[in-house]
Amino acid sequence: MSRSVCACLLAVLVMAMEVSAFNTFVVPFGRVSGKTVFHRNVRSTSFKVQKFGLERTQPLFMSAPVEEVDVEAVEIPIDSLYTCPVCQSAIELSDEECGNCGAKFEKLPTSGAVDLVKKEKVQETASESSSSSCSLLNSIQDNLGNNPLLTAGLGSLGVNLPGRPIRQELFRTPQVANAYERGWRASFASAGFPGIEKEFDLVQDYFQDKRGKTILDLSCGSGLMVRRLARSNAYDKVIALDFSESMLEEVSRRKREENCPDFDIIRGDVQAMPFKNDALDAIHSGAALHCWPSVEKGLSEVHRTLKPGGRFFATTFLWGIPDEVINLSKSLGINPVDRAYRFFSVPELEGLMYDAGFDEYSVERRSRCAIIRCRKQPAPEDQAE
Question: What's the distance, Cα to Cα, between the start and end of the chain in Å?
């Protein structure tokens, strides 16, 4: 084929591409100008591309420039459960920062877990000296908070940093994380806990209608339950969440060593869980409530993040003395926050579930262990089921 014929065919092809491009606002031989801005639409949990202009220079083989055109905003849905801990905008777990507020999401170096705990900072003022002082305080607070041995040690002396009670900080230490599956958790059987295999059976039975859906192991510890949930292949998505970096390191290591099916591992705060409203079908929390900084806030978050009809299964410690004594001490003004651990009475747990918003709940007593089952009220159209 001669060069002239090839040139003609090329010219026809390019012109056809230009016509197609004009019809669909694609510019294969031009220059795109203008600004594309992304922001988060929290209500519809979607990305939105704001309106932007396209300007084309005179393209090859065309004798006249093409007029500037506008492209209307387009919606790109986000199929994600997760939210930014700072601004609560929808995020993907693979995001390195929030597209709305710019908050950074780090992966913990030893476990690979995504850290979605909000970093609390001292409020800065306009003056330079105050700003400098706040920066120093923030630095000290960060250094203390990142050293669980120090915060737990201070807690044992009665010095609790804001938001860091000893019952939380103790489980951030490597020593406790290392010992958890090496006899400590098994020793709970003496208090009436069913044991991990029996608890797994109870969970599977209570979550029977949540097969193929999304389940969270909240305050997952070293991953005793979450690994079993993942290996069951009963759920579409399994998530492990804990505040303790050391526990999450154990989760990651044991998951790898046991060649466990994949599941999400995140660092999160039970008082401000990084999930959108009505995101989860089921939540398990084993031997954990007595360690939460605020049981009231934690249970409120459980209720918020469960879908209508979602289920919550938990175990925790009861006091080893009669309920009447506990209720009396409570009425005398003993603050639960001041306890090293917050053990409960059955009526107290029932009241906590009711106050969190659950109208369907039960608390089963087995010696000094409480087995809690709750169901969030279903949507009106599902209540007949």
Answer: 73
